[in-house]
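Notes to self after the Tuesday call (sharing in case useful).
The group wants a holo model before anyone commits to mutagenesis around the pocket. I volunteered. Ligand is nickel (II) ion. Logging inputs and output together so the record is complete.
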Amino acid sequence: MSICTIVIHPDPRLKKAADAVPDISDELRRLADDMLETMYDAPGVGLAAPQVGVLQRLIVADPAKGDDEPQPVVMFNPEVLLSSDETSVYEEGCLSIPDQYAEVTRPAEVKVRWLDRDGNLQERDFAGFWATVLQHEIDHLNGKLFIDYLSPMKRQMMTRKSQKFKRERARD
Ligand code: NI
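Result:
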């Protein structure tokens, strides 16, 4: 396994809709493993393939955080089938927008359908922090970032800070 370089906002790859995965190859399974390693190393609770420069519909997540056992999930072609009217607010961050956080309101519960790493179709309801993390990651597959839910002023401010981070990283 290896750690991938994370694409930092602003970057055109983070604004594009990713392509559906037609079939799950060993190469894509390896990419999922690398993404999980990259996510844990960062550390973060979720990562979408466009964030490592691959425009395919693949996300990994482990929103269990401090809970006893890691609970990694790998989802190919994830889709939100149903969203609750009820909403919840969590402070979100993103590995592509380092060290910046803001509260985002999203549906509190979602029903998600996806293909697991063996190509089996799965469907499950998620609530709480899990629901927020999965919606955040699925947004990435549609070229949408959590800062797109914020006011233009706040978005601009966070974009500028991210740009500065990116310049400094390029210099190192
Ligand atoms: Ni993100």
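Two things stood out.
The pocket of nickel (II) ion is lined by residues 94, 96, 136, 140 (CB under 6 Å).
The chain has one domain: 12-171.
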